[in-house]
């Protein structure tokens, strides 16, 4: 068979062709790439950013103030002048929902932070260290669970007075216990698996095993729990404000707007509708973002 | 195993004791007492009442006498309700709350677990999306809003159930749905996420390869493994049901124990606060204990590690 | 295993509930005259059902229907003889002699005698009983001394049974409204024979003995109390109702839903947001309620030690807007402190009507002038202060509205602080506030229940305001022999109060209720409770 040499070209020794190896990505770089791929997650992130802008910058564009009452103008249904209607004191609901967003978003973020920083680490340590340490740490969680939160909150109110920061303190005392339990449970089962053994064998330190191997494998339940507990935080804040700890009237979060609004559900349903929609929307976005994060951060999905 | 049980029992008792002490201190640290009123009682009258209830004795004496009575399982009289002792309150209220809670938990498990499993099996298809939307709604709507909503629409407008009250089977439905909503959503979500991971595992592929029928694979292997985070969640779930029951009981006018968690603190009814808190603590540690035992049974890896 | 036991217990409980539920739904098969019964919501589990100790409105309603006293209000709000058929009053008005009817019985058949009354009143005063309302009986001679243990012999107290049917009462000083006090639960008798032997008699339906139109049939804690017609009642012919169920639904929204679904027939706790709609539907009856909603100044703290500042803040409030748009219960604006509904010296005169109004509502002009006069023109340099209220939707809305009114009308800033109930009471009594919300319901239908509060030594004076002239006038009113003179002193006292303005009156309470139209002839006391002795059900209306 006659083979035409012109069909062949000599292969030059180019660096890129010797070994097409993907750049060595660390955990975080890989995660970010995967996160960008998930359309829903990005959509969620965009919605959250939009709600953030709505809450923090929105009032600049409105005439009405969140505290301005107009008693003879109360309970008006949505109109052009008041797109979300007016509340029981004639205040514009739109601007109040904006201000409410500031507080609820802050509370939501703070709560998730508390959950992640305190809850995950506490549960992770407890599950991993096991034995007596686990025993004591879980009993402390039991104690925190059993103590009446209301008593602690009233005491905080007496000692600290009102203020948004005090809500974070109250969250920091009791909010993370559920997450701790769940993480601890997961770690307990994960630490007996082969990959943990493998990590130990190559000489990984205890904290490396915990933070680099075990916790990332728990990322699924962690994200679901963190996301799903955000509404709890939002309504916990409204409960605290109701008691007197937290922001003072007339400033109101979505939780407070919703609890005020539900009383009027038969007469003026739009009052509960708007805050509830925003809470649900925020939840939806956090959820999509959370799913995307989970898919991005789960080591088992790395390619 | 028995060593484990004994050790656990000892630590449970310590926990209960610490909770009782801390609660006593907290309750007395906040201003106001059981007889602080807007129409201030004249001093002499207040003195007589405090003497009668031993509130004039130094705190340490009150504390010791409370601990002493607690060991005899006698939590004392209620300061606010003359006709009830704390034991009465617990005895009358607990079965009601327990029934409601039990039904809610059963609802949550029997609806949440299958929902989550189905969502995982049909991942990203309409079944999955439906479950996800419902669970998001279930989690975003707090119980007092859901309760008012159900009471008004199903109870009053559509006249399907009596809007409130307790005593007939129909009156159990709305409150238990309300209580179960959040747990159903949460369990479905956790179950789904856990099951999705489990389904990706190699051993599932092996099971299919071995020729096991789909349902066999699912039930025997997938669900059993995926259910672990749900079991861990049972502990906090039971706690949530009991604390959530206050709102539901108040809105549906149910004579349970839940309301005392809150009203006793507003009333500064010290004995009730302590009695109810200690009782709740005992329940909680017992439930956690049982959950931990179930946990080690279900996951053989933990059992092996322990022995 | 614990969980199995729980399930078993659960099944047991469910089945027993179903069975009991079935039992309640059983309807009498015989075609008889239907039982006259209805459901009244008292809104809370009673604290005490012992007349000597009860202090709350839910308790009063139940006890008033279970017991009868020396006198009773009739359907025209007049005091009429009840167990006492007549009485003599001494010239100096300090000695009363009551002649009791014969043949009055307790629900267990035993006779009601003057000894029961003597025993009950001494018991209510006794330190051992620890009654919160012992001070209601301090009008009796040596009453206070006995409660405070200054004397230990109960025979020195000014009440004595001269024989089985004659009761002699000695008062500390003339008390023109003494007869109306006798309708108070603390003055109602308990059965001496029963109570002496069993101090826990009021704790359970099995031992509860009463002498009124109704007797106790059942008491299910936190759920309901059922009372039925007392056949041993001396006036049982006048009683038409066979049975009343008192429910304990606390939430107003729930109570409304239960009223509209037919589970409750008499609702007392209507959410204000629903009032507009319900009023247009004609379902609301607005009952009088002797009470004032007001704000307190801490007069020891500048700038509130200056009465011009206090008056400025008082005048700059639009009460009409509050009453029409927030509370919506037909409340009247308060331009004085003592509410309407209290008799003056003669029965056709109302104290408030006679006393008139002390200022104009929403008088922004004068408010501004006063503020400027005090050194804060346009609100400049006025310190930012705190407005304290206790946790409640209603108080919050009113506070938010007033905060804005002060800002808009006077240019002053205040911060709203809300505190949990007892923390708030504590702050008030310790004067740890600037301006605080308050409310006062009258204990008895006389101006002194409102004006006594502000004397320098009153434990209820949370303002720090002390005025010797005021104290003097109140003292003189107490000692006055003549009702006309007494009222004059009281009017003068109120004038001083309104001139110094240590408080900001806002509105006078009302009690909006919803009652099924077929329930008739019940008595709504302006003190908040309801008497069903003469009530009846119009069956024709009911079956429509």
Describe the structure.
The complex is a heterotrimer of chains A (303), B (307) and C (544). By secondary structure, chain A is mainly alpha-helical. In chain A, 68% of the residues lie in helices and 0% in strands. Chain A is flat, with a radius of gyration of 26 Å. The relative contact order of chain A is 0.15. Chain B is mostly helical. In chain B, 78% of the residues lie in helices and 0% in strands. Chain B is flat and about 85 Å long. The termini of chain B are close together. Chain C is an alpha+beta fold and 544 residues long. Chain C starts with a helix and ends with a helix. Chains in contact: A-B, A-C, B-C.
Name the helix and strand elements of chain A from N-terminus to C-terminus, one letter apiece. Answer: HHHHHHHHHHHHH
**Nearest-integer average pLDDT of chain A:** 84
Q: Give helix and strand order of chain B, one letter per element, not per position.
A: HHHHHHHHHHHHH
- Total number of helical segments of chain A? 13
Strand content of chain B: under 5%
Determine the mean pLDDT of chain B: 85
Radius of gyration of chain A: 26 Å
Low-pLDDT residue spans of chain B: none
List descriptors:
heterotrimer; A: 303 residues; mainly alpha; 68% helix; C: 544 residues; alpha+beta; 7-stranded mixed sheet; 21 strands; 33% helix
């Amino acid at each position: 068979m006659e083979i035409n040499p012109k069909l062949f070209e000599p292969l030059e020794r180019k660096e890129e062709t010797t070994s097409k190896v993907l750049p060595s990505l660390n955990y975080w770089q890989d995660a970010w790439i995967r996160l960008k791929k998930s359309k829903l997650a990005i959509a969620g992130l965009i919605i959250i950013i939009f709600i953030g802008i709505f809450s923090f910058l929105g009032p600049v564009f409105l005439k009405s103030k969140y505290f301005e009452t107009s008693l003879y103008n109360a309970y008006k249904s949505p109109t052009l002048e008041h797109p979300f209607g007016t509340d029981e004191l004639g205040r514009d609901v739109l601007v109040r929902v904006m201000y409410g967003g500031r507080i609820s978003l802050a509370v939501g973020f703070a709560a998730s932070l508390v959950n992640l920083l305190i809850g995950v680490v506490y549960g992770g340590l407890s599950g991993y260290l096991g034995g007596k340490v686990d025993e004591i740490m879980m009993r402390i969680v039991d104690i925190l669970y059993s103590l009446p939160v209301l008593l602690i909150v009233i005491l905080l109110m007496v000692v600290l007075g009102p203020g948004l920061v005090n809500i974070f303190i109250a969250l920091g005392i009791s909010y993370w216990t559920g997450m701790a339990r769940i993480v601890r449970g997961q770690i307990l089962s994960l630490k007996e698996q082969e990959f943990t053994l493998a990590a130990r064998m190559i000489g990984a330190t205890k904290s490396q095993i915990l933070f680099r191997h075990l916790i990332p494998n728990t990322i699924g339940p962690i994200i679901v729990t963190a996301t799903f507990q955000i509404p709890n935080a939002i309504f916990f804040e409204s409960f605290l404000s109701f008691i007197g700890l937290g922001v003072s009237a007339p400033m109101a979060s979505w939780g407070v707007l919703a609890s005020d609004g539900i009383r009027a559900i038969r007469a003026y349903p739009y009052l509960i509708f708007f805050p509830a929609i925003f809470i649900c929307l925020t939840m939806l976005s956090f959820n999509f973002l959370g799913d995307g994060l989970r898919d991005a951060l789960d080591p088992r999905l790395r390619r | 195993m028995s060593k484990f049980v004994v050790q656990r029992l000892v630590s449970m008792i310590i926990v209960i004791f610490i909770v009782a002490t801390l609660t006593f201190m907290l309750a007395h640290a906040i201003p106001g007492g059981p007889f602080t009123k807007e129409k201030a009682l004249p001093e002499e009258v207040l003195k007589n009442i405090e003497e009668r209830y031993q509130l004039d004795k130094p705190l340490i004496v009150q504390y010791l006498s409370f601990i002493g009575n607690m060991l005899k399982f006698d939590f004392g009289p209620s300061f606010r309700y003359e006709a009830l002792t704390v034991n009465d309150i617990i005895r009358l209220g607990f079965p009601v709350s327990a029934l409601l809670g039990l039904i809610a938990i059963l609802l949550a498990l029997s609806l949440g677990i299958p929902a989550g499993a189905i969502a995982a099996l049909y991942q990203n298809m309409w079944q999955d999306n439906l479950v996800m939307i419902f669970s998001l709604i279930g989690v975003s709507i707090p119980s007092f809003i859901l309760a008012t909503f159900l009471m008004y629409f199903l109870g009053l407008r559509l006249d399907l159930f009596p809007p409130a009250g307790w005593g007939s089977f129909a009156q159990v439905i709305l409150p238990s749905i309300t209580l179960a909503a959040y747990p159903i959503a949460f369990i479905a979500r956790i179950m789904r996420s856990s099951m999705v991971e489990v389904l990706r595992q190699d051993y599932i592929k092996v099971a299919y390869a071995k020729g096991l029928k789909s349902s066999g694979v699912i039930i025997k292997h997938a669900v059993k493994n995926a259910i672990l985070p749900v079991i861990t969640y049972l502990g906090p779930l039971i706690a949530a049901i009991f604390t959530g029951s206050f709102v539901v009981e108040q809105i549906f006018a149910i004579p349970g124990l839940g309301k005392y968690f809150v009203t006793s603190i507003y009333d500064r009814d010290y004995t009730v606060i302590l009695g109810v808190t200690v009782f709740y603590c005992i329940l909680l540690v017992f439930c956690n204990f049982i959950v931990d035992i179930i946990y080690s049974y279900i996951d053989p890896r933990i059992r092996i590690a322990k022995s | 295993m614990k969980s199995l036991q729980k399930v078993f217990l659960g099944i047991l409980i469910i089945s027993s509930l179903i069975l009991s539920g079935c039992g309640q739904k059983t309807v009498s098969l015989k075609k008889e005259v239907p039982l006259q019964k209805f459901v009244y919501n008292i809104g809370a589990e009673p604290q005490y059902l012992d007349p000597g100790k009860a202090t709350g409105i839910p308790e009063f309603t139940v006890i008033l229907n279970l017991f009868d006293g020396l006198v009773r209000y009739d359907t025209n709000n007049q005091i009429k003889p009840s167990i006492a058929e007549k009485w003599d009053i001494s010239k100096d008005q300090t000695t009363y002699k009551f002649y009791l009817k014969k043949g009055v019985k307790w629900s267990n058949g035993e006779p009601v005698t003057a000894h029961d009354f003597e025993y009950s009143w001494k018991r209510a005063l006794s330190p051992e009983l620890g009654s919160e309302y012992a001070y209601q009986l301090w009008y009796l001679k040596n009453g206070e001394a006995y409660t405070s243990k200054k004397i230990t012999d109960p025979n020195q107290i000014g009440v004595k049974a001269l024989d089985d049917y004659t009761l002699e009462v000695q008062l500390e000083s003339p008390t023109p409204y003494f007869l109306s006090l006798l309708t108070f639960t603390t003055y109602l008798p308990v059965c001496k024979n029963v109570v002496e032997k069993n101090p826990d008699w009021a704790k359970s339906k099995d031992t509860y003995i009463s002498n009124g139109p109704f007797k106790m049939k059942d008491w299910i804690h936190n759920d309901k109390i059922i009372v039925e017609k007392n056949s041993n009642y001396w006036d049982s012919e006048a009683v038409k109702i066979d049975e009343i169920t008192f429910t304990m639904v606390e939430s107003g929204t729930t109570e409304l839903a239960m009223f509209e679904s037919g589970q409750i027939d008499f609702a007392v706790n209507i959410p204000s947001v629903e009032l507009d709609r319900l009023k247009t539907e004609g379902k609301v009856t607005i009952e009088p309620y002797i009470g004032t909603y007001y704000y307190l100044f801490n007069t020891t703290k500048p700038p509130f030690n200056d009465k011009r500042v206090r008056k400025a803040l008082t005048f700059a409030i639009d009460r009409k807007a509050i009453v029409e748009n927030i509370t919506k219960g037909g409340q009247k604006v308060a331009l004085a402190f003592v509410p309407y509904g209290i008799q003056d010296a003669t029965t056709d005169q109302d104290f408030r009507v006679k006393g008139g109004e002390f200022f104009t509502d929403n008088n922004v002009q004068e408010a501004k002038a006063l503020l400027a006069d005090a050194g804060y023109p346009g609100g400049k340099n006025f310190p930012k202060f705190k407005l304290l209220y206790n946790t409640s939707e209603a108080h919050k809305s009113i506070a938010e509205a007033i905060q804005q009114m002060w800002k808009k009308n006077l240019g002053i800033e205040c911060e709203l602080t809300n505190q949990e109930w007892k923390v708030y009471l504590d702050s008030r009594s310790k004067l740890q506030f600037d301006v605080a919300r308050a409310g006062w319901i009258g204990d008895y239908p006389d101006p002194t229940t409102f004006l006594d509060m502000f004397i320098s030594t009153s434990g209820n004076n949370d303002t720090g305001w002390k005025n010797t002239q005021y104290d003097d006038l109140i003292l003189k009113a107490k000692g006055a022999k003549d009702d006309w003179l007494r009222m004059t002193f009281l009017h003068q006292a109120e004038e001083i109060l309104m001139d110094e303005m240590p408080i900001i009156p806002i509105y006078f309470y009302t009690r909006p209720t919803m009652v099924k139209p077929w329930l008739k002839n019940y008595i709504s006391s302006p003190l908040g409770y309801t008497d069903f002795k003469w009530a009846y059900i119009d069956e024709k209306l009911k079956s429509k």
